[in-house]
Amino acid sequence: MSKYWLEIAQEIQSIAQAGLEYCENDYDRERYQQLRDLSVKIMHSITDIPLEKIKHLFASEKGYQTPKVDVRGVVFRHGKILMVKEKIDGKWTLPGGWADVGLSPFENVVKEVNEEAGIEVKPVKLLAVIDKQKNNYPLDAFHIYKLFILCEDSGQRTSKGMETDDVSWFSRNKIPQLSENRISKEQIAQMFEFYDNPTKEIICD
Question: Which run of H or of E encompasses 32?
Fold first, then answer.
């Protein structure tokens, strides 16, 4: 039920955002702002996100609303997967983050792995495009697509990750406590399936 209302709130927010961008009179603007405020209240009631944070997130969004893109690097070394420890919650995830404007998905993943893990990599191929709402993740205010990109390990460490507390390699049976808003056990298992079967077809929701 919470997921259902999240989808309703996101749709209301999308309509309100487009209306605020393109409406031509103050009366319509007031109505679209009321819709945005309503979506904020619904999201606050079904998530752990503070009300003011949701207001700030939505207030900074302009134009036609589209899903956000999260890019994650999948790097293996001797059967182990590269993971980074997040400063914000002390838990582990694949290196990555929001895609930056002006960079392609492959350019983004090289940048993110370098910044978070301090490792130079070469992107090889897209493994999966995951719709966060359709998988086992906590509820989020935004609709998010997660891109998982296989990267070739250069074997060279450039520096300590600037945005993380630790970097390590983990075997499939010794996965640490995960930062569940960023990565799920199911997705880690899927990445190891690609390691076992390099010809496995791309996953796309």
Answer: helix 26-46
Q: Which residues of 135-156 are buried (b: 16+ CB within 10 A; e: fewer)?
A: eebebbbbbbbbbbbbbebeee
Q: How far apart are CA 27 and CA 71, in angstroms?
A: 40
What pTM value is reported for the model?
0.74
- Cβ atoms 167, 117 nearer than 8 A: yes
Q: What is the pLDDT of residues 89-123, one digit of tens each?
A: 999 999 999 999 889 999 999 999 999 999 999 99
Mapping DSSP to helix (H, G, I), strand (E, B) and coil, where does residue 119 land? strand
Instruction: List the CATH number of the domain containing 127.
Output: 3.90.79.10
Residue 55 shares a structural domain with residue 155: no
Q: Are 82 and 76 in contact (CB under 8 A)?
A: yes
Print the domain residue range for 175.
68-204
Distance CA 47, CA 44 (A): 5
Same domain as 150, residue 54: no
Q: How far apart are CA 71 and CA 78, in angstroms?
A: 23
What is the per-residue pLDDT for 200? 96
Report how many domains make up the chain. Answer: 2
Amino acid type, 117 = A
> Is 80 exceeded by the pLDDT of residue 63?
no
Please tell me what DSSP assigns to residue 111. H
Give the Cα separation of 12 and 26 in Å (integer).
19
Contact 116, 192 (CB under 8 A): no
Q: Indicate if 51 and 73 belong to the same structural domain.
A: no
Tell me which of 143 and 151 has the higher pLDDT. 151
